[in-house]
Amino acid sequence: MLIEHGILYPEVSIRGFGHHDLAFLLHGQYAKWATPQDRSLTDLRDILRGIVLPSAATTILLSSENFYVYPKPSALRSLLVEAGLHSSDEIVIVCYVRRQDDAHVSWYNQSVKAQGNTSSLNTTIIREHGLWDYATRLQPWADEFGINSILVRDYTPFSQRTADIRDDFLAILGADRDRFHLPAGRENERVNRDILAFQRWVNHLPLSAKKKRRYHKQLIELTAASEGAQFFDDTPLLSLAARETLLASYAASNAVLAKMYLKQETIFDPLEEKDIAAGTALSGLTIRKIFRILAWIAGFRNSFQTIPR
Length: 309
Fold this sequence. Notes:
The protein is mostly helical. Helix content is 46%, strand content 5%.
């Protein structure tokens, strides 16, 4: 359907729907938690060129969050030129930014369930603080491609599910949303507090990152299946006060971001208590909960309403 709109999403080592290998190799190496593939950056460049040059598409689309996490904008430009980019071609860099308290919680969830992180949330926040300093992180992209080439979008409506990010992105591409049959639901959901603690225990084992995350999709399914059953602890990982303190540390950066890229004073709405989802606190990770997690992984998926607490 994209190609019918003149949009080419080149099949260059796509994994998990994104061009992650391109991002890693442009950076110079794979992340410790990532599974490398055998082809070199030169190989992928040649594949990209072989797909792009004969195509009649008017738009070439590349996508990976790792272009942001491991930025090499000058190397990306070189790759695009080698793949056929002309000086008259327009480059648009779309970056969805998330309010930093939510971004840290989401990143922590992802890093534990899929990247082998064994650290606490507070340790991870301190270590990764610069990752969500958007003004600083986007500056190299602005230096390379120009401020007017960067389109910054607030992710808040999509995290709150009041809008669909796919609709928004298709509109940016100029594609007819009504012609796309998009599945309902969300990919790569979070895991609750207890299951996160269980995965952190697994991450301490002397296993490869790939083996540590072997069951992360089942654990995501378990979180969804147990919601509302009052069995697992599902309280927010950050209190309102902790979120306010965290957001204050990004206030100056966010002001620069809003002024530079959006020509406005602010980008995110003020934090309110209603923004923090309610949860049920239930005694931490007990033996009974561990047994239920292992049973779910083993394929025993009885209703949570029948489990004695």
